UniProtKB/TrEMBL annotation:
Organism, scientific name: Spirosoma pollinicola
Gene3D superfamilies (alphabetical): 3.90.320.10
The protein, known as: Putative exodeoxyribonuclease 8 PDDEXK-like domain-containing protein
InterPro entries cross-referenced by the UniProt entry: PDDEXK-like_dom_sf, Put_RecE_PDDEXK-like_dom
Putative exodeoxyribonuclease 8 PDDEXK-like domain location: 53-224
C-alpha cells in the first residue's frame, strides 16, 4: 500500500478538453516534440511509436479514473461507430474491459490513492509565465491537493507501466523525462497566473505507477525527495524553452503548429 502523505481545498477548473489544447501556450508535451525534432525521433523514447490501441487504452484509464463523467466519450474511442454518449463497458473487448476494471479496482483499494482521489482537484489546468524566458506555459495536472491554509501542495501523476519492480519504475522516470515533467508542473504552480499558490511553502510531486500486467502492483516515487531530480528536470525544460524561444524569434514569433496541441 502506498504510504499516506498529506488534506484539500478545491479550486474551479476554468477550461477543459479542446479549450485547453487550443491555448497557444507551451506545454511539457510540446517540449517533448521539440526534443524529438532536434535529436531525431529514434534517439529518444517517443509516444509517436506507441500503438494506437495502447494510446486509446491509456486515455480510457485516465478518464475512467479522473473524469468519470466523460466515460461515454472515452469508450466511443474504442467503438467509433457507436455515438451514444453512454456506452456500457461490456461493449469493450473482453481483455480490455477486464484489464481496465482491474486497474481501477487496484487504485481505488489503495488507501493513499483513494484519499487523494477524493480530496484532490483532478485534471487541473494551470496557466503560467516562465520567469526566465517570459514564455506563456500551460499544464494539465492529474491530481493536485492543496492544504486548507494553502501552505502545502502535492501533485500526483498517474502512470501505467510495464515495470515489474520499484527500481524499474524509478529508472523509467529518468528514461521518459519525468524529471522534466515534475519540474515543469511544480514551477507552473509557483508561477501560476494570478499567483494562486503564491503563499505555498512546500511543493511535493508524487508519481504513482501501476503495472499493466498481473499482479498490478502499485509503485510510488516522491520526485521531490530525490536529490537533484527536480533541479535537473528544471535545467532540461528551461533549455528546451530557450530553444523554443530562439526558434520563435527566428521565425518572427510565429508559433509552430505543434505548439497548439496538448
Amino acid at each position: 500500500m502506498v504510504s499516506q502523505l498529506l488534506t484539500s481545498s478545491r479550486q474551479p477548473i476554468y477550461t477543459t478538453g479542446d479549450d485547453y489544447r487550443a491555448l497557444s501556450r507551451v506545454s511539457n508535451s510540446d517540449l517533448t516534440r521539440l526534443k524529438e525534432e532536434h535529436l531525431g525521433y529514434w534517439s529518444v523514447p517517443s509516444a509517436r511509436f506507441i500503438p494506437e490501441k495502447t494510446k486509446a487504452f491509456g486515455r480510457a484509464f485516465h478518464q475512467h479514473l479522473l473524469e468519470p463523467e466523460t466515460v461515454g466519450t472515452v469508450l466511443s474511442q474504442f467503438l467509433p461507430d457507436m455515438m451514444e454518449p453512454t456506452i456500457n463497458t461490456d461493449a469493450l473487448a473482453p481483455a480490455q474491459t477486464k484489464q481496465l476494471a482491474t486497474l481501477m479496482r487496484t487504485i481505488r483499494q489503495d488507501a493513499f490513492c483513494r484519499r487523494y482521489l477524493r480530496l484532490s482537484e483532478r485534471e487541473r489546468i494551470v496557466l503560467s509565465t516562465e520567469p526566465t524566458t517570459g514564455i506563456a506555459c500551460k499544464a494539465r495536472l492529474d491530481m493536485v491537493y492543496t492544504s486548507p491554509k494553502r501552505r502545502n501542495t502535492m501533485v500526483i501523476d498517474l502512470k501505467t507501466t510495464s515495470a515489474r519492480t520499484q527500481a524499474q519504475f524509478l529508472e523509467s522516470c529518468y528514461t521518459y523525462d519525468y524529471d522534466r515533467q515534475a519540474a515543469f508542473y511544480i514551477d507552473s504552480l509557483r508561477n501560476a497566473d494570478g499567483r494562486e499558490w503564491g503563499t505555498t511553502k512546500q511543493f511535493r510531486f508524487v508519481f504513482i505507477g501501476i503495472m499493466k500486467q498481473s499482479p498490478h502492483r502499485l509503485f510510488a516515487v516522491d520526485a521531490t525527495s530525490i536529490p537533484g531530480f527536480i533541479d535537473y528536470g528544471r535545467k532540461k525544460y528551461r533549455f528546451w524553452l530557450r530553444k523554443w524561444h530562439d526558434e520563435q524569434t527566428t521565425d518572427q514569433l510565429v508559433a509552430p503548429a505543434w505548439s497548439m496541441s496538448a
